[in-house]
Hints:
By secondary structure, this protein is an alpha/beta fold. It has helices at 6-14, 42-55, 87-101, 103-107, 125-141, 150-156, 183-196, 240-247, 309-322, 371-384, 396-400, 407-410; strands at 32-38, 60-63, 79-80, 118-122, 146-148, 171-175, 179-180, 200-202, 207-213, 216-222, 227-234, 253-263, 273-276, 281-285, 291-297, 331-342, 348-351, 357-361. Strand 17 and strand 18 form a beta hairpin. The strands form 3 sheets. Strands 1, 2, 8, 9, 10, 11, 17 and 18 form an 8-stranded mixed β-sheet that branches. An 8-stranded mixed β-sheet has the order 5-6-4-13-14-15-12-16, with helices on both faces. 50% of the residues are buried. The chain has 2 domains: 31-109 and 183-253 and 344-410, 3-Layer(bba) Sandwich (FAD/NAD(P)-binding domain), CATH 3.50.50; 118-180 and 255-342, D-Amino Acid Oxidase, subunit A, domain 2 (D-Amino Acid Oxidase, Chain A, domain 2, 2-Layer Sandwich). Flavin-adenine dinucleotide is lined by residues 38-44, 63-66, 70-73, 75-79, 206-207, 235-237, 239, 243, 258-260, 294, 337, 339, 363, 365-369, 414.
Amino acid sequence: MKRYSAFAVAREAFRQHSGWGRAWGAPEPRSRYDVIIIGAGGHGLATAYYLGKNFGITNVAILEKGWLGGGNTGRNTTIIRSNYLQDPSAAIYEKARSLYEDLSQDLNYNIMFSPRGVMMLAQTHHEVRGYQRTAYANNLQGVATEFIGPQRVKELCPIIELKGPRYPVMGALWQPRGGTARHDAVAWGYARACSDMGMHIIQQCEVTAVRSEGGRVTGVETTKGPIGCDKLGVVVAGHSGVVAEMAGFRLPIESVPLQALVSEPIKPCMDVVIMANTVHGYMSQSDKGEMVIGGGTDGYNAYTQRGSFHHLEETVRALIETFPMISRLKMLRHWGGIVDVTGDRSPILSSTPLEGCFINCGWGTGGFKAIPGSGWGFAELMAKGYSPLTDEFGLDRFVEGRFIDESVAAGVAH
Ligand SMILES: Cc1cc2nc3c(=O)[nH]c(=O)nc-3n(C[C@H](O)[C@H](O)[C@H](O)COP(=O)(O)OP(=O)(O)OC[C@H]3O[C@@H](n4cnc5c(N)ncnc54)[C@H](O)[C@@H]3O)c2cc1C
């Protein structure tokens, strides 16, 4: 595959850009692979990439029922942070955040990582205490965050109104190396690198059944015919329950719509990411100038990739209290995804009752930030049967009551 570089761009400019090849192939499926990954979202593609890069396993197919990155990976608001409370969460999210730092160089694909800083506002005394506690925990975990006062919040984000009518801003948990990245580019960059290693990314190929023999996975049935495999990775986010049922086990997961919206583009006015968890809203500004806005999940289970209008209205109404200047903006578009939420708001990266079948799900409203770390750990789990990054995130924690409670860090926002 052609390497992207300043030299390559200059050379192509002189020959009418006729020398660029496809970024990834469109192969027909083989009858068998060492590993099949179901789901070409960020987590599935990253898993395949690190299987190849770290373990030399390249006879891999990634099966996608729609188009790659068309699930939650291409629908999220791209917030990246690792300021979680519990040690296993901080470890996997910080691994991901640190991989994001030089992912563009690693993949030879510009993922537009922008570590502009993420701020989680404290707007009640309870939140002040909670975020101070998280800052102490993060210090011990080696995650660089600090609790800052309202004046510093105002310095970092001049458009904020500190004395909101309902909830004043009393401080914030600040992670200076948190930020955003281009979501599609993360999926495209991993896809191109996987394809370059000889892996097959097969789009428009829905898995309709999981085949097994003697309690061990042997392959899948798909809309493009049966395909055999030694190991199967299920990485399908909102459809995890559906595919788990095909494999014969149940998951403690709920699928709910989560939506987001962007305003019309305006001049640069905000160069940090702000999350206001008490009022269920968060906001950043895209490179195009749109204000990117999201809120909490809808209050019902569904498989529709759109949310309810009243939810949008609530989110915007709440945010206007803290950012009055957005009240005049027009909404440009809104969209939704189906997120997979567990009871303790932590993911599942685990072997399953079906031997050879592994599951990676439960990232809920906040899995974009975790993609590189999740792929890294899940690939290790699939290749070696154990990974220190994923060890605490097994399915057995729901049987043993060993929850990783991240409801404060992950329950509402991203
Ligand atoms: C509106 C919104 C805002 C968000 N904001 C943030 C944020 O700011 N920061 C953050 O960290 N996270 C955020 N998230 C969450 C984040 O997007 C997800 O956690 C993450 O993208 C999940 O990635 P994935 O690869 O697991 O799933 P997906 O990207 O959904 O990929 C799963 C793929 O599996 C495919 N699939 C399903 N069933 C089958 C089948 N039977 N056969 C073949 N393929 C199948 C689907 O088509 C899909 O492409 C947000 C989510 C939404 C919806």
